[in-house]
Design brief:
Blueprint lengths: L6 H12 L5 H4 L5 H5 L6 E3 L3 E2 L9 E2 L9 H12 L3 E6 L10 H14 L4 E5 L9 H7 L4 E3 L9 H4 L5 H14 L4 E8 L5 H13 L4 E6 L16 H13 L4 E4 L9 H14 L5
Parallel strand pairs: 1-4, 2-3, 4-5, 5-6, 6-7, 7-8, 8-9
Helix pairs in contact: 4-5, 5-6, 6-8
Amino acid sequence: MRAPGSPVYRETQNIVRENNLVTVCEEAGCPNIGECWSKKHATMMIMGEICTRACAFCNVRTGLPTALDPSEPENVANAVAKLGLLHVVITSVDRDDLPDGGAEHFAGVIRAIRARTPKTTIEVLTPDFLRKDGALEVVVAAKPDVFNHNLETVPSKYLKVRPGARYFHSIRLLQRVKELDPGMFTKSGIMVGLGEERNEVLQLMDDLRSADVDFLTIGQYLAPTKKHHPVARFVTPEEFKSYTTVATTKGFLLVSASPLTRSSHHAGEDFEKLRAARMAKPSHA
């Protein structure tokens, strides 16, 4: 990837700074930041920049988070309007310290964007709301267009890679979204190159399809620092193509699998493809 630095990149950076926003693009050290910000595409990370979890793959800081910023929903909505976003991805750190895990704050951000730019489609990438009864329902009731929750890796790797999470809780979370709102698009993503076996990835696909998940993303894991989980291997482009073929035959409406695939990369274009795929499959309407 090219190093960032175009005039539009700097303009995006200024809008993010002026509205006191945190982006996952910067916090997670995403390799696609130069490309996305040069198109004014930024993924907002709400509820601060300190996470209550300590996942082995993630570059976001762990610790005791600060209080929620009550002006954040309006600030995010202002930035979405200034950037002219037709589709926005809203993600967050894990907030296990909050009674609802931050669900009401997510809903507030969705409502603020709807009020400011009604035509913008909204994708949320949420934490797992583990042991937060009623939290998921609050976010779904705010009616985002896409509900994304990443599994990140296969279950055998959870203890080392995602120790604070529970694989089958995440599957159930995605299934529950469809029960609450059958028309809402659901999405999940994983990284490969963490030491998983191919058959484990195929089983994960089946688990997601059993929860009626529409869209799967698969990307290459890149270690943010030497302190993070090491890269076990670099998956070949041919293997990514094979995963795409298999996932498509398993019934996903859309699959994005490549070395540089990330949850929010090309999310706007992918949303249009999702809508088109659903229109082409009347049984999913």
